[in-house]
Amino acid sequence: MLDVRALNEAFVRNTTHDTDGNKLAWLKFKCLRFEKQRPGVVKFRYSHEGPYSEFNVQQIYGGPPKPLRCTKRRKGRVPDEPDNHDDAEDWTNKIKKDYPIPKAYPQALPISEAKKKDLLNLCTKGVIPRELHSWYQSLPTNKTVIDRLCEPDVTEPDDEDEELTRQNGERREKSTIILDNFNSTADLAGNPGFQSTLSLGSKEVINEKEYNPFEHRKVEHPNSTIGSLVHLLKSSLGSGILAMPNAFKNAGLAAGALGTIVVGFICTHCVYVLVRTSQEVCVDAKKPSMGFAETCGAAFEYGPKRLRPWAGFVTTLVDYALTVTYLAALCVYIVFIAENFKEVLDEYIPNYKLSVETYCALTLVPLVLICQIRNLKWLVPFSAIANVLLVICFAITMYYIFSGLPNPKERVMVAKVTQWPLFISTVIFAMEGIGVVMPVENEMAKPQQFLGCPGVLNVAMTIVISLYGIVGFFGYIKYGDEVRGSITLNLPQDEVLAQSAKILMALAILFTYSLQLYVPMEMIWRVIHNKISVRYHNITQICIRTAAVVGSVALAAAFPNLELFISLCGAIFLSTLGLLTPAIVDTVHNWDRGLGRFNWILWKNIFIGMISLIALFAGSYKSISDMVAKYGHSEHVESMSLNVTSNGTWVS
Question: What's the whole-model pTM score?
Answer without folding.
Answer: 0.58
